[in-house]
Design goal:
The chain is mainly α and 44 residues long. It has one helix spanning 2-42. The chain has one domain (1-44).
Length: 44
């Protein structure tokens, strides 16, 4: 019983962490792509 409860809590925490970090990582990667695209178009 304790093992199942620990597994459930761990899965819940991992899911929460992934859903919390996902938008922040997506926005950061989008900004990085914009910067690289601008450097490419500027000819640097």
């Amino acid at each position: 019983m304790a093992n199942a409860l620990l597994s459930d809590r761990l899965q819940s925490e991992v899911t929460t962490t992934v859903h919390y970090l996902s938008p922040q990582l997506t926005m950061s990667l989008a900004l990085l792509l914009v910067c690289f695209q601008r450097r490419l178009l500027d000819g640097r």
